[in-house]
Sequence to fold (181 residues):
Amino acid sequence: MKAARSQWSLVAIRSFLGIVYFSNGLAKLFDFSAFSLGPWSQYLINRGGAYNIIAANVHNGGIGPLRDFATGFVLPHWNVLAWVLTGGELAVGLGLMLGILGRIAALGGLAMSLLLFLWSVGAGAWTYDFMYEPILLAILALTPGLPGLDTLLLSLFRRGRPAIPPRREPLTKPAAHSRAH
Fold:
């Protein structure tokens, strides 16, 4: 019983992180940054905002080779890489929310969040809270068998239920026709 509770707790964390990634991917896709639902308002990071965050962090700090990678490759090619980031956030978000290849989605989110963290080191940014996300994503990536859409489909497959029902033979066989030669 305790194992089931802890699994559902991790599913809730996975789903929340999926919403975060997916909503920020949508903000990049449709180029908006403010979202309101009744009295609740949220700031999301669109493509321009992501560029500004990376540029400011690597300008003010960052780790040598990663800073050089950002200034020499990422920022000059942002018109293309912004769409790669957008697709990555949408894929990670869907994977985490629905539990489709959840461990792979967690690894993708972990890579993105660690890179952002490493670009922020030494930039004067408050990086302590940047570590919550990578730690949670690492835990999700290391946890096998969390309930999700992929585990549901796998369990249906393992029960012997084929995805396509077998073709049934007709109840009566057609009469054999003889050919005259």
